[in-house]
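The protein record now logged underneath.
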Amino acid sequence: MIFCPTTLHQQPSKQNPIFLPSDSETDWLLAKMFIKNADMMEHEAVQHLMKTHFLPEVYTVAALRSFSVIHPLYKLLFPHFRTTLHVNIGARTNIFGPGGALSISSLGHDGLTELMRRDLSETTYSSLCLPEDITARGLESIPNFYYRDDGLKLWNIINSFVKAVVEYYYPSNSEVCKDTELQDWISEIFTYGFLGNKASGFPVGFHTVEEVIKFITMVIFTVTGQHAAVNSGRFDYGSWVPNGPILLRKPPATTKGQTSMETILETHPNVGETANFAALFCMLSSTYSDMVPIGTYPEERFHEPAPKQMIKEFQGELSDLSDAVSTRNLQLEIPYIYLDPPLIENSVTI
């Protein structure tokens, strides 16, 4: 295993030394704990809450305000927004709110809010589109990167399904341009979700069929696969608190050679806080008894034969992906299950 030097602030100094594997065992362990703590804050606030809960809330509210219930894109999107508002209202009180479970995290409610605010100002459209994000981060050839492998396959399957449905209802670009409900939807998302930030690359309006396909693919992938990827493994990887501490009770070391195992124990959450975090992760990683897997549509909204057939083909491709993931996982010491379609919910529920 290759260890990188670790510093806990942006610039090294006498009060912020660069910690190395060659330092004392407890110095190096404590430094890694603080890095993991920062990573967990970013993961929970930005990658989970903001990008797969709060931004989808914008997509949902804009759809409810802009589309009539008989609009084909409402029929396509609504099953993926089934419980978005319900779960977000609860999360704002019980998890993210001033008195919620994350209020005792290292950043607290105000700090997490500020972290999301800063990230949203720099969030780009391409960063939410998995193929572009993987390329931008140079992750195309990293070995054994199952999130990328399964995620790109899922993205392509969703894209194929969305393309079939959208092209069926929009045979030309002119149909897109004159659909006022569609234009209202994307305008509200751009204005209220991304605060009119043109530098983000988010579309202000739709001009082509391809633009609609890409955006809806991003939306559906976000509330299904991406949410599963960042949320479903929370208990598996976070219930052992030292592996991903949300709260550290002491400040980072400013001098080398002054730590001990007692320092590490004092820095960790106490027993009650640890139990609360483990319970939170268990709840986040669980599923409801009425869980609806991706591609399953109990409420039949489309009545034309063509989109019904497209749904069947979508389900078939998801089944094939599941078979491939299951076969691959048989060869892994630690299976990667989070993007196996039967385990991915059709909408954000937790």
Notes: Residues 4 and 20 are 7 Å apart (CA to CA). The mean pLDDT is 93. The first helix runs from residue 25 to 66.
